[in-house]
Write a structure and sequence with these properties.
This protein has 258 residues and is an all-alpha fold. The radius of gyration is 38 Å and the shape is elongated. The protein starts with a helix and ends with a helix.
């Protein structure tokens, strides 16, 4: 309970800190001014994230279980470029995805996946631009080029026209490659799940329609006592008329014989 209360009170402040980190990091790389102020903001935010992680771990009832289930929170502390990914929690306000249970799950997965990859592309472009800028033989000489390289890397196209030359840049490239592979897997699984649901829905619809048609035919035969009584009465009248005709014919034959 204490951990839930702490998370409830710190969720929005941590999101605000994530925005501040993204702004400070972007300003430091792109503008190149107020470096000391940006570094101070980044370091202060890092300390706040460390405090939040330590307090959450201390308040958890089962600390080891909480630790194993919150490795992403640890990654946001160890790797500063992952801190903006906390902004993905803002996407939970998209209630428009809650139309059906299946669509809600797939919608959230798609939004989180594309949101995470898009933010990783932006932060990865910033990071690779910061380490590649000014290096001899580099082809990433601007943020636009870095953003193009990040997009090509995440989509696993890999034209090869732009590539990092530093060790840090290559590590960033590996991270973006894994993100792209994960995105392709999520898109494929989501599409396959949607197709299976559509096939199941169509089969269920046809089965339901067939069952209803059978029930209607059975009702037409068994659930019409008035019609059945009328048919029985008409049949009896026909039998009486036929009996009278036979009797009349017998009398006529008998009179002829006499």
């Amino acid at each position: 309970m204490r951990l839930k209360a702490w998370k409830r009170w710190t969720e929005w402040p941590l999101m605000a800190l994530s925005v501040m980190f993204l702004v400070a990091y972007s300003w430091e790389i792109l503008a190149g001014t107020h470096i000391l102020l940006c570094e101070t903001v980044i370091n202060a935010i890092w300390i706040m994230f460390v405090v939040d992680y330590a307090v959450s771990l201390w308040l958890a009832e089962d600390r080891w279980r909480w630790f194993t289930r919150n490795l992403f929170a640890l990654a946001t502390i160890a790797l500063p470029m992952l801190r903006p990914l906390r902004l993905l929690r803002l996407l939970t306000v998209l209630h428009v995805l809650n139309r059906t249970s299946g669509m809600a799950v797939r919608g959230r997965i798609a939004v989180y996946a594309f949101g995470a990859v898009g933010m990783l592309m932006y932060v990865g472009a910033l990071a690779v631009y910061s380490v590649e800028r000014g290096e001899p033989g580099t082809t990433i000489d601007g943020f636009g080029t870095a953003l193009w390289w990040a997009f090509v890397t995440v989509t696993t196209v890999g034209y090869g026209d732009v590539s990092p030359v530093t060790f840090q840049g290559k590590l960033i490239a590996v991270a973006l490659m894994f993100a792209g592979i994960a995105l392709i897997g999520i898109v494929t699984a989501t599409l396959a799940s949607w197709i299976v649901d559509q096939v199941s829905f169509e089969a269920h619809r046809r089965e339901t329609e067939g069952r209803k048609a059978g029930e209607m035919r059975a009702a037409a035969v068994t659930d019409s006592p008035v019609d059945s009584a009328e048919e029985l009465r008409a049949l009896r009248e026909q039998v009486r008329e036929l009996t009278a005709s036979v009797a009349s014919l017998r009398e006529e034959l008998a009179s002829r014989d006499r």
